[in-house]
Amino acid sequence: MNSTIEELKNRFEQALIAAFGQDLAGTDPMLVPASNPKFGDYQSNAALSLTKKLGKPPRAIAEQIIQNLDIADICQPPQIAGPGFINLTIQPAYLEGQLSQIQTNSRLGVPTAKHLQRVVIDFSSPNIAKEMHVGHLRSTIIGDSIARILEFQGYDVLRLNHVGDWGTQFGMLIVHLLEAEPVSDYDLLDLGDLVQFYREAKKRFDSDEDFKERSRKAVVALQSGDQEAQIAWKILCDKSRREFQIIYDLLDVRLIERGESFYNPLLPLVVEDLEKLGLVVENAGAKCIFLEGFTNKEGQPLPLIVQKSDGGYNYATTDLASLRYRIQEDGAKRIIYVTDAGQANHFSQFFQVARKAGWIPDDVAVVHVPFGLVQGEDGKKLKTRSGETVRLRDLLDEAIARARTDLENRLKEEGRQETAEFIANVAQVVGIGAVKYADLSQNRTSNYIFSYDRMLNLQGNTAPYMLYAYVRIQGISRKGGIDFEHLDPDAKIILAEETELVLAKHILQLSEVISQVEVDLLPNRLCQYLFELSQKFNQFYDRCPVLKAEKNQQTSRLVLCDLTAKTIKLGLSLLGIPVLERM
């Protein structure tokens, strides 16, 4: 089924053709949700936009549109306001019919995307031998949510983890590892704190010339396929991978790892092909590409280096190789990179090179999805008291611990007894959900302040507030002995009260919101929708008795409650947050 706004747009296009001829086929009716409820539910600005083209006053155009607009089954008679705005108010009977249709629909009436295609999403991307820190939080959470939403819409999504598992730093790590343990003990080796291991290797590299030289030779040995270097490299990757997986399991995030090393054999051909196209310029021994719009402070052009003077390759070369592979081998029609805003120039540069080289076909979209910093309460980059980057595992564990303390205090106040399993599960769902929601509810392009107190608050635009709204509805089921799974699918829905109408309209906007996020990749739109849904449900619940209502009205209101719960559950699942039956 079409969303209400899609159906209205179709009717407007028919009216425009009927009123002014086939020339207006495909004209945008400029239909948007009304900014103020007193103007109705939707407003069209089409008459104003067509004034110049049609040479008529906008109110006269609006009159002609209305005369040809067949929407009596959806809306009350349209109203013209101001210079020529067309205001529409949805009929209660139409809302009742729409709710009846979606009552037993697992997708709640949300249609799948019209043009299904392969989408690659590149997100998370930690570095081997380094622990995941707060800087990986946003990429992982935002990327996963975008993947969930596009998967729900029916796209064939390939979730890729482009880990940093290659490069010069592995020379020092391999030498440090080989000198720490004999090769026969690798299977038993516990690297312990990977960060500490990396620091020790880096300290030796910076202070010991002999170690630095052996490290450089180890890089050459690794790249040449030396067996001992390869074994050491694989051990480092495997140990890191296990650490990463603990985080991914905690966050319920699925990824396919395809690190920098995967593309390594493809790099010489990338440079060779760029040279054949005449794009490469040699500068101080390095192979560079100079691009439009990129200069340093002195106004001199900044090159994108694709091969260093020592023959090594840069991130840009790997990114170009991966882009080609994703288009040619993976068949991607949309490639989405989820990284911090600080990398915007890098993406602009290598996208421009790929376009110049003709590697991005017209039917392929490449998109950088930038995000801002996670800041502490002081408004500065989030760090530990000692000034170090916050480990992601510590941050998540702290959120769970705080959620547990809060739950145990409430249980004590209420005199409730719960099992250890119940407490552990609720603490994890609330703690992790709070961290995810706090991130996703912000416009991703902005920085945001990380506050446990704010994100765990039961009031406001937080995960606990959404979860509580869902739990409240399940409480109605328990209190009234109602099985929502077996509500009468043919029950008549009656929208008599204002709060019932407001809630119904909002439930039916889910499709529009998901379609928006599918295009602009801003999950905060879905968060805002769920927050407003929870608010509207609470207003409805406070003003409209459910279990004490008359029989027909009770059934109708139970359907409204059930649809609200299903919408919250679906919406939160697209953000990577499970619901709770009790809190």
Write a compact overview of the structure shown.
With about 575 residues, the chain is an alpha/beta fold. The chain contains 22 helices and 14 strands. The strands form four sheets. A five-stranded parallel sheet has the order 7-6-5-11-12, sandwiched between helices.
What does this entry look like structurally?
It contains 22 helices and 14 strands. By secondary structure, it is α/β, with parallel strands linked by helices. The chain has a five-stranded parallel beta sheet, sandwiched between helices. It has a four-stranded antiparallel beta sheet with strand order 1-2-4-3. It has a three-stranded antiparallel beta sheet with strand order 8-9-10. Strand 3 and strand 4 (85-88) form a beta hairpin. The two termini are 35 Å apart. The model has no long low-confidence stretch (mean pLDDT 93).
Global outline: globular
Summed up, the helix count is 22
Q: Which secondary-structure class do the elements indicate?
A: alpha/beta
Helix fraction bin: 40-55%
In round numbers, the mean pLDDT is 93
Beta content comes to 5-15%
Could you give the count of β-strands?
A: 14
Q: How is the main sheet built?
A: 5 strands, parallel
Which strand order does the major sheet show? 7-6-5-11-12
Supply Rg: 29 Å
Low-confidence stretches: none
Question: Strands, helices and their partners?
Answer:
Layout: H1 4-20, E1 31-33, E2 42-44, H2 46-49, H3 51-54, H4 58-67, E3 79-81, E4 85-88, H5 92-102, E5 118-122, H6 137-152, E6 156-161, H7 169-180, H8 194-207, H9 209-223, H10 227-251, E7 256-257, H11 260-263, H12 267-276, E8 281-283, E9 286-295, E10 301-307, H13 315-328, E11 334-340, H14 344-356, E12 365-371, E13 374-375, H15 392-414, H16 420-440, E14 448-449, H17 452-455, H18 463-480, H19 498-507, H20 510-520, H21 524-543, H22 551-574
Parallel strand pairs: 5-6, 5-11, 6-7, 11-12, 13-14
Antiparallel strand pairs: 1-2, 2-4, 3-4, 8-9, 9-10
Helix pairs in contact: 1-4, 5-19, 7-8, 7-9, 7-10, 8-9, 9-10, 13-14, 15-16, 18-21, 18-22, 19-21, 19-22, 21-22
